[in-house]
């Protein structure tokens, strides 16, 4: 067995152990009242979220038409099946979509989520999109955060990576899952990161954390968290999971205002149970007891950055929206992640085009700084 196969086998075993823990999940114990930040679940207009769904759908539809991506069965993707249309979505303007600013003024920086480091040899966030984006002129960087470290630790890694990037360019962060909260902590903790950032685009971001982080006894979490894995060293205790507790995330948002010089964009994904990968089904079922509108890891209502522009709701589970799994690279993992067919490259390109146009409209592109 090669070293890569060995690491993959350990990953699959770890994943299966995590699934088995679902049966042992303890009843949730609410945090002490003094640690609960006041919060409310509101509709997007009541919560100060800007609804950009109609315009984003137009751009997404145009990108799908230009790129003509197809499913594994050869059926062309369309916006109706890959992007949910929830009530109140603004109507199409049917206007021509102008070209965005020159792409060399921005640097797109991808930040992956929890445990992404552990599967980096077989799957990376938007790994199937980067080649096409670079071909059409985008400059792409990827920050490999630590998969089992907390958000505060990864915020420092993001700061160090940004300091090594060329000056004079504005950064558009593309974040997935825990990568969203790692990035938000970085721009709050390190003013130098905030100053160089134009936008954050969150795909299924664990903005308010996830109820799953509170669903298991600590000793079981430590058992999984501390499993030996040379490609993904454990952190201190269960710090990565601690970073995703809803009480921690909501309290952090309550205590830290996000910088106003940055624009925020949210793409909260969710899928039906039938369109959720096998490895995520037990977690989908757990979350469905709270809200069936989830992606198998995060509740949809927890995946919107406060004050952001809502771009749309991808019809995808937590992996499908950002993490490609190749059957050629990993047949075993592909069996577990079996609902991975999604036009990620087109979705990301559409999001970037929307953001470029929006930044140009409000005068926050690099040339205006």
Count of distinct structural domains: 1
Q: Can you identify the CATH class?
A: Alpha Beta
Q: What helical percentage do the residues reach?
A: 25-40%
- The H-and-E topology, N to C, reads as HEHHEEHEHEHHEHHHEHEEHH
The end-to-end distance, rounded to whole angstroms, is 54 Å
Any idea what the CATH architecture is?
3-Layer(aba) Sandwich
Helix/strand/pairing class, anyone? Answer: alpha/beta
Assembly state here?
single chain
What is the averaged pLDDT score? 87
Return the CATH topology. Answer: Rossmann fold
Binned strand content: 5-15%
Silhouette: globular
* Rg, Å, rounded: 19 Å
Nutshell version of this structure?
This protein has 369 residues and is α/β, with parallel strands linked by helices.
